[in-house]
Amino acid sequence: MNIQHWLSRNFFVFFITWGAFLPYWTGWLVQDKGLSVTEASLIMGIGLVARGLSTLFAFPFASRFLSAHKVILSLTVISLIATILYIPSSSFTTLFVVTILFSAVYPTLLPAVESAAAVLVSHHGVHYGKSRKYGSIGFVVSVFIISMLTGQWGEQAILWSMFVGLGFMLFMCFLPTPTILLEAPSKQNRKGALSVQKLLEVKSFPIVLLIVVLLQGAHASYYNYGYIYLQDLQVNQYYIGLIINIAVIFEIFYFMKADSLFQKWNTSSLLLLAAVGSTLRWILLFLFPNIWVFILSQGLHALSFGVAHYAFITYITKNLPKEQIPNAQGIYSAIALSLSTAVLTLLGGFLYEISPKLAFLGMIICTIPAILVIIGSRRRYNF
Question: Transmembrane segments in this chain: where (predicted)?
Answer without folding.
Answer: 12-30, 42-59, 71-89, 95-122, 134-153, 159-184, 205-225, 237-256, 268-288, 294-317, 329-352, 358-377
